[in-house]
Amino acid sequence: MKRREKAMTVLMVTFIGLNENDILYIFVFLGILGSYFSVKPLISFMMALKLEKLLNYILGSLLFFTLYFGIALWKDEWQLIIYDQLQFTLQAVALFGGVLFTVYLVKGIRKN
């Protein structure tokens, strides 16, 4: 964006009483709201199919990655280590999901 266009944008935003951080908060809030409404039917569908174990895995992985990247933001000296190990971490979470799936599949087959 050219300097003049950016200045006009800042003036227009300031004119309506918002600064750049306010607009960022609005976009983040709208993104979260959109995610909520797009995921809610999927969660309801999984609950109807009694896929609680899958939901536990998904939420556990989400919590793990939140903590994983939270540490990267908290400790500057760990950022490179954490980002270098990201591929390994993603593979480990996928492997854990595969093992979990296999265990529950075998239990289901034995039960029947």
Write the layout of secondary structure elements.
Elements: H1 3-15, H2 20-48, H3 52-74, H4 79-84, H5 86-111
Keywords: Membrane, Transmembrane, Transmembrane helix
Organism: Cerasibacillus terrae
Protein name: Permease
Structure write-up:
The structure is a single chain. The chain is mainly alpha-helical. The chain folds into two domains: 1-49; 51-112. It is built from five helices and no strands. It has helices at residues 3-15, 20-48, 52-74, 79-84, 86-111. The longest helix is centred in the N-terminal third of the chain and has 29 residues, at 20-48.
In short:
Keywords: Membrane, Transmembrane, Transmembrane helix. This is Permease. With 112 residues, the protein is mainly α.
Keywords:
112 residues; mainly alpha; 5 helices; 0% strand
User: Mean pLDDT, nearest integer?
Assistant: 83
Structural class: mainly alpha
Rg over alpha carbons: 22 Å
Number of domains: 2
| Secondary structure: number of strands | 0
The helix content is over 70%
Q: Which blocks of ≥5 consecutive residues have pLDDT under 50?
A: none
Beta-strand residue percentage: under 5%
Measured between the Cα atoms of the first and last residue, the distance is 64 Å
| Count of DSSP H/I helices | 5
Q: Tell me about the biggest sheet?
A: none
Order of helices and strands: HHHHH
C-alpha geometry = flat
